[in-house]
Amino acid sequence: MPVRPEKQEKEQPRRRQARGERRIAQLLEAAANVFCTTGYTAASTSAIAREAGVSPGTLYQFFPNKEAIAIELGDRLMHEMRDTYGEALAPVDPATPLEEAVAATVDRFIDFNCQHPVFFALMHGPDIPGRITEEHDALHATLVARIETLLSSFLPDAPPADVNRTAHMCLGLYKAGLELILAHEGAERDAYVRELKNVLTRYLDPLVGEKLGHHPATATPAH
Fold it and tell me: Torsion angle, CA of 95/113/183/31, rounded to 10 degrees?
């Protein structure tokens, strides 16, 4: 049966839109690889186009410059990161041992960052676009607030300033450990993940250990 002209007219824009989305995803994946390899500052649209296997002209059909690519990539990653910390920083059952709670949270965050190493490269590299800096600062503030909420459920009598300080320390320790973790692979990366979990557990144990189904922390020895 012949396809009616009006149906063809509706399908063509959808096909063009789908092709455009696939091309954008291809360009963003290429940009992520280039930013991880060379850093944002040294990256160029020519290098991104080459990595994507397209001409610079094709790239410019979708993005006017490198900054626009980084901003789109950063927006998508931060949206996914918000979903990740929403799951990772959910309320903890008081019967959960501290080591288990720390391990579950760290594993979710580490998994995200290992799947998307460009997130760390963009968020913490020099000369990143101003909009990304602003959104990262907002993400950081929200993360601290979520950690504060989680800690407050176990430290109801602690002064807000103390809870805020503890939340900042937890996030700072995680970021310091993450940089080391991403710099290694294989068994050595796994060892650094264990060390990060040990550090956070030992730090939090005197504060919230008694509030969770937990005996005093016994850290895994480093090898």
Answer: 180
pTM exceeding 0.90: no
For residue 151, give the nearest of 208, 104, 83, 199 by alpha carbon.
208
Q: Give the ranges where the chain is alpha helix by DSSP (H).
A: 5-38, 45-52, 56-60, 66-88, 98-115, 117-124, 130-152, 160-182, 186-208
Structure tokens at 12: 């063509």
Give residue-wise pLDDT tens across range 112-140.
999 999 998 888 777 777 788 888 888 88
Residue among 80, 74, 61, 64 nearest 19 (CA) = 61
Contact partners, residue 142, CB within 8 Å, separation at least 6: 82, 85
116 CB-side CA count, 13 A: 19
Burial zone of 143 (CB within 10 Å; 0-12 exposed, 13-18 middle, 19+ buried): buried
Separation between Cα atoms, residue 97 and residue 213, nearest integer Å: 5
